[in-house]
Amino acid sequence: MDAGKLGEIVRTLEKAEKMRQAIPLLSSSHRFDMEEAYGIQEAWMAYKQKAGDRLIGYKMGLTSPAKMRQMNVSEPVYGKLLASMLAENGERLSHASFIHPRVEAEVAFLLGKDLNGEDLTEKDVLEATDHLVAAIEIIDSRYENFRFTLADVIADNASSSKFVLGHRLVSTKKEDVATFGMALRINGELKATGTPANVLGHPARSVAMLAKMLARKGERLKAGDIVLAGGITEAIAVQPGDVVQASFAHLGGVEVLFV
Ligand code: 0L1
Ligand code: MG
């Protein structure tokens, strides 16, 4: 893809986010494959970093079998996490600063060592992880009606918008994180339950898969990176006034408010 076209697409995505105005699919006016879609994502995130933001980790998306079947893909997608996306536990976020936000409960991995390779195991991932933390991801597709093709959503940084981490840092040594029960409540009402096993059987498998996808491009996860392993349940749309709480066995709670 030539630099002029890439620049035009980056400006389109940036404007959609800044103006909180959903756009038609990029693929309706540009032709690009999945590899080029990651090139668009990279260029958009590089633009933000040049403007002062900082890469602090990655997120995995489309990690549930149901979502993968729906999109007819055999592999999840990833996006990049920037410092500006991290909100405080309990923070009040303006609903009007999003287009059509949805929330997902996730487990975050805080890496203590680099992870590099195409054949990493869950054990390798857990050994490289300092702590596990409860997280809520707020996704906000820049596309109209939250609908997209796989290439479109990759270009859109996998719908990333904000994320929140809990305060409890849990060692990976004690229990199997895949079995930690999670309850997601909005305004005190139970909306979804599940375990991190919903993420590819084990969330550490998702992180290993991310390392593999990055390794194919000559990139690696680094010590200090935060990795959101993937939504444990379906993403749920939120409204102004909503209080969103995810409570995990062992990991504790994490909360965000929309005003
Ligand atoms: O974090 C996610 O699972 C979202 C990935 C992109 C697909 C979507 O926006 O639902
Ligand atoms: Mg997610």
Automatic annotation (TrEMBL):
GO terms for molecular function: hydrolase activity. Coiled coil: none annotated. InterPro entries: Fumarylacetoacetase-like_C, Fumarylacetoacetase_C_sf, Hydratase-Decarb/MhpD_sf. Keywords: Hydrolase, Lyase. Residues 74-255 form the Fumarylacetoacetase-like C-terminal domain. PANTHER family: 2-KETO-4-PENTENOATE HYDRATASE (PTHR30143:SF0), ACID HYDRATASE (PTHR30143). This is Fumarylacetoacetate hydrolase family protein. It comes from Geobacillus proteiniphilus. The lineage of its organism: Bacteria, Bacillati, Bacillota, Bacilli, Bacillales.
